[in-house]
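Each letter names a residue; structure tokens follow underneath. Both lines appear below:
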Amino acid sequence: MSIEWTEIHKRLAAARTALDRGTAPSPDETRNILKARAQALAREPAPREAAGESIEILEFRLAYETYGIESSFVREVCPLTDFTPVPCAPPFVLGIVNVRGEILSVIDIKKFFDLPEKGLTDLNKVIILYDDKMEVSILADVILGVRLVPKGEIQPSLPTLTGIREEYLKGVTADRMVILDAGKLLADRKIVVHEQVKT
């Protein structure tokens, strides 16, 4: 079978011409492309969420409700293995714990907030909160994890949350996570029993 080289060369030349025409736009097309690019560049960029517009929250369960607290106030989370009751302390002070030689009060915020009581379980954790002046720990039933919450999604507290409970709330998310105000908790001296063990 003989190959028609002349026909093949003609087809290749035609294909090359079609490709050249396809890749090189006409002067009108060039003007339109440049105009569209100029308009795209002139548009203001869509506002990006600034780094400070979200807060990192440690999420935990407490008496069948989901709570959160800013992770910047969380020093660490420990299992509640042992605690010592404190005589004459307010009912919401569960007791004190020794964390590597440091004595911290454990606040049962279920009692502090008048939430339904639930017995201690093996899953109970202690969340140690701190700032530059104070350290205190709060009790949690289960630690759920850490997540970023956009500040715009935090709503004012619910009308059902009143009194002392509302005073210590930062707000509520759409999925009903109640965010506690760690700064206010740490600033309230009446909930703290804090001593240092001399070694």
